[in-house]
Q: What sequence folds into this?
């Protein structure tokens, strides 16, 4: 079920069993081994015929492998161990971890390590994971300075050569990906056009961070990352190539449900009852997780406000009260209390420092916990359409017999429907597994980051207080 | 200027130059060396005469030593060092420090070590400091169980023999001390009859702690601690002795301004201008310190409420959100995330524990900071009358010349007034120095305690978080 896109117009010569096609048109390849530079193809109207090989581009195949469950769970403790060990879930050690956290590159390619599993269909992950860094936002202008914009530098690990993109380019990419892959792959929304942050600099930083997060998630996806449009975005050589590529991508007709024809599950058809059960479980899961994520975001927001508002103000007041008392003590006229007053002042200053530390802490830890959950809130939302589309297809297949009896569809149609739906099921399950695997990796990472920063926070304060304590004389 | 209290009625034999006196009357001793078992004394009406030595009890002298400033400040670094080192300010190393803090015994006897000072008059501190422990509150009842009360065990370090006292006994002691010493020594109020604390147990604990604090402060005072009534309270042997002692103390006529006749400054008269300056400085100081203390109490109260209210609730919510997410993850049906879900659950529980720690922390540190400041608020308030009484006496002395010219007082009266006022000045300055020295000790102690507990608090949380972190797999 490979598809091909027509590169150039071709007009059939009558009587030669040829097919007239137009540039951009999507064909289903029926027989690629006709020979003599010809392939047999079918257009969207169902007409079949020969088309010259050079006039079309056969779409890449996205292979889904089914990882069969092998071995006994209870036979071997090691099995469990390997499984429980999320170490094998994450990217390789070389994955660049952005110092600012959150927007860290990560490419899933670990499923091949996991041959002893029954998770079901998984995407075929690339050998070397794609990754990119979004950095160095620069102000540009056009129309003789009348219009200004921000350009971000995007550097993929494959070429290490930066390309520049404006937000609207990311938005263009998002639209293309949604159009082309949206039926099979939930495409998370781009970061909001309006991000909170009163200052332009803060706004740009936040947007960059979120674009980085979005790009990493796209890089991690084995279907997205290998797509022509995504590669164009990351690796175009010059303005001309970019514009040509853009035009081509916009004309791409292999979009929407047609994407399923580019997916090749290396396995027999799935058990439809099991598929439905899995999908239902997943729907329930995403609903619960959505609730959990929203709950955490809610709590986090309240905590953020407290940590940046009233709490540091209180520490500041405590600090001021100590220093104030120290000043009063200094006016006593009583000799020999400089040790006390100095220490009391130092303690007061320490609490003012603590106020600062407390106020700045959420940016260091809670921020990434929030961003990750925010991202997942979006991801969970984007799954909805994909799951619904799949469900509609399943329902249609269920009605196929009735429709065939009513003469509305042919037996061939029914078989085609069944096959396509099966691919959709494979694809959705590969997506579900992709999601879970990423989720485990992401939450493991963000929780560790959060706890590490929290530990650093409490230890820093303890150290500061120790220093303050040392100024007092021992009793 | 020693005084004596009449023990038994004595009727003068006419023509023998004797003086008729009544039990409880206070006399001023004019000549103690008359011989033959007689002393020459003057009663409050100014009448003089001989009184049998056995019929009176010469009051104890409270000596004030003036620590003269010796040595050059800049000559010798060691001088400064000894001075700045509050180590020499506090009680000796044996002072029992109550584990519950706050109500810790402390006796000032360090001034003797401080001979190289110009702080001015200081009380003569006893060789071994008095101290006591208030503990073991027990419910008692009388009237066949109709009335119940709480008895506290008070154990002085001098006898190590506990005596029992009810709150009303402490109150009785307070009234006696106020009556007898109030003109010279600011007597801090007893803890409120109504202490906050909803539960009886909590109430009793709090009252005991505050009674302990009050008793310690009284023990520390060289005049109070050696007084007969205070000694009676601490060391009576049986009910009979207690009742007899009580009656005697209640009949004591050496009260109010007469207390100054029992004080013997071992020094020439003070420079009245300097005295006034010192007093004014002190008044300003107490006013400022009162403001500072109230400020700290205010801030502390707000902080207390946050730490016991909204803050732990937030940590609990964070904990619940983590655990909730973990439960959701457990329903994924995806294998190999038990490490993550277990760790996430543990992290959630850790934040619930942190909530508990946060909520209980103020009782461990802020409490004592608050109690000490609360105590000082009372102390500062009790100084007001003492300072005002002194100021009135000074003003009267200033008017003495005018009054003498107007024939309202005699030259002798003027001299007596001057001498008495001088003793008041000595006494007040000794009190001021006593206050400062205690203040340095107390604040040094309570700040250290606060910081130590705060450090323990932050370290405990950091340790708990480390444990939680260790449950996640390293990336």
A:
């Amino acid at each position: 079920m490979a598809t091909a896109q027509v590169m150039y117009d071709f007009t059939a010569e009558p009587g030669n069993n040829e097919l007239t096609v137009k540039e951009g048109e999507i064909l289903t390849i029926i027989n690629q081994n006709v020979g003599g530079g010809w392939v047999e193809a079918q257009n969207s109207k169902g007409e079949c015929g020969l088309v010259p090989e050079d006039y079309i581009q056969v779409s890449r195949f996205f292979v889904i492998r089914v990882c069969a469950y092998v071995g006994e769970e209870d036979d071997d403790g090691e099995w469990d161990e390997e499984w429980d060990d999320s170490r094998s879930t994450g990217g390789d050690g070389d994955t660049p971890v952005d110092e600012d956290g959150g927007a860290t590159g990560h490419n899933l390619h670990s499923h091949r390590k996991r041959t002893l599993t029954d998770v079901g269909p998984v995407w075929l992950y690339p050998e070397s994971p794609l990754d990119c860094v979004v950095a160095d936002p620069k102000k540009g202008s056009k129309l003789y300075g009348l219009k200004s914009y921000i350009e971000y530098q995007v550097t993929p690990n494959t070429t290490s050569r930066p390309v520049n993109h404006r937000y609207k380019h990311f938005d263009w990419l998002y639209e293309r990906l949604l159009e082309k892959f949206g039926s099979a792959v939930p495409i998370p929304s781009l970061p909001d056009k309006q991000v909170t942050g009163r200052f332009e600099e803060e706004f740009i930083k936040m947007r960059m961070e979120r674009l980085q997060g979005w790009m990493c998630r796209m890089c991690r996806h084995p279907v997205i990352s290998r797509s022509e449009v995504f590669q164009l975005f990351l690796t175009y050589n010059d303005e001309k190539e970019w514009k040509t590529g853009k035009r081509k991508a916009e004309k791409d007709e292999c979009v929407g449900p047609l994407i399923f024809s580019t997916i090749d599950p290396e396995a027999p058809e799935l058990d439809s009852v099991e598929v439905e059960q899995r999908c239902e479980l997943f729907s329930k899961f995403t609903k619960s997780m959505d609730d959990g994520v929203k709950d955490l975001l809610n709590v986090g927001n309240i905590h953020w406000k407290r940590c940046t508002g009233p709490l540091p103000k209180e520490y500041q007041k405590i600090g001021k009260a100590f220093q104030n008392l120290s000043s009063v003590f200094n006016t006593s006229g009583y000799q020999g209390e400089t040790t006390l007053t100095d220490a009391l002042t130092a303690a007061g200053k320490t609490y003012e420092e603590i106020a600062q530390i407390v106020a700045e802490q959420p940016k260091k830890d809670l921020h990434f916990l929030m961003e990750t959950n925010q991202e997942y809130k979006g991801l969970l939302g984007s799954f909805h359409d994909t799951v619904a589309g799949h469900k509609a297809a399943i329902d249609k297949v269920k009605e196929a017999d009735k429709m065939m009896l009513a003469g509305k569809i042919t037996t061939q149609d029914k078989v085609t429907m069944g096959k396509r739906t099966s691919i959709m099921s494979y694809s959705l399950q590969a997506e579900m597994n992709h999601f879970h695997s990423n989720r485990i990796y992401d939450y493991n990472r963000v929780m560790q980051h959060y706890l590490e920063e929290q530990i650093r926070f409490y230890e820093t304060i303890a150290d500061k207080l120790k220093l303050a304590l040392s100024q007092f004389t021992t009793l």
The mean pLDDT of chain A is 83. The radius of gyration of chain A is 29 Å.
